[in-house]
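> @MW can you paste both from yesterday?
MW: sure, first one:
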Amino acid sequence: MKYTIILLLLLITVSGYCSGLQARVLGYQLNEADSLMIWNKLDIQCDARINDLLRQQADQNKKNSSMSGFRLQIYFGSGENAHKQAIRIKTEFLSSYPDVKTYLLFKSPDFIVRIGNFRTKSEALKMQKSLLFKFPNAFIVADEIALPELLNLTTNN
């Protein structure tokens, strides 16, 4: 009986403390440029510090325009004619695959041509297999890739 009363008092104290920490949040007011307006439709019960962390994370994500992913490296060379060779390889690739992003990099003393913005290694592997005859030395490298463009699928009623 004594333990039951102590446990009951402890539960009442803890529940009162927890309800004092919770704040009723009706969502952030986002800019019109934000495509996901889900925040305006949510009714979330949580600590106000969590909302601050969520806002900080969203701001950080807006600043960072890249993510970890993969690219295919189709040329790597140095020397007198390396720059011309890299441009030739890039142009040759773009003539066959105009929709695939191509990057010409210079990391002293080498010129590098990389292609694509693949989120998974399997996507990069598919492209590598399709390039096997034209670029047999192509290989997959981990790289920071551009974020994919989001489609705005909202409808105006």
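MW: second:
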Amino acid sequence: MKIGIIIQSRMGSSRLPGKVLKEIGTKNLLEHILFRLSRLKHNTIIMIATSLLEKDNTIESFCKENNIKYFRGSESNVLERYYLCAQKNNFDHIVRLTGDNPFIDTEELDNLISLHLDSKADYSRSFAVLPKGVGAEIFTFDALEKSYQHGTKENHKEHVNEYIEENETFFKISELIVMKDKMRPEISLTVDTEDDYQKACYIVDKSTSDYITTQEAIELCLLYA
């Protein structure tokens, strides 16, 4: 059984160009994600999936320099990028992450993977209960393939999970339950704008540990606000 973690990442953000390689403390954003994923207990294969555009050559260079597996595909059809990446690497289950979330909760990601496998779900998620940018989702290759084959709307192509979410009766879905002190979905810990970036820098600067827990990130986020 192969579990692939595919991190969609590109340089062309309209609101904060090049954010995935911007420094937050001593690491750039992608390095924060990879550092946190290194703590996972489950055996996974980590891939960075970027586009074929020339400006994303920088991400390919970063991956080569750091011995990170990568895949390049369509910029606009992210669903296709995920499907072809998973197909090429023979992944049985695919965790979807995005390259603008430096505070992924590794403990809850392990719990999500366990829930997904134990419940034999087609699709499992945790982002509805955790702060924005902290949760994740995982789907079987079969569920991803169905999405790719039948998800013909533009929003399906742009957002990998939306065909499943619009057709939940066709899939077995599991929802992760987390501790109450992490249940703050109204708080955003993603990096989408310059203010988000400054907030992330503040959290990293003020933290007392290398691995920032979700609880600490929430507390520092509230102080920054």
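> thanks! The first helix runs from residue 29 to 37.
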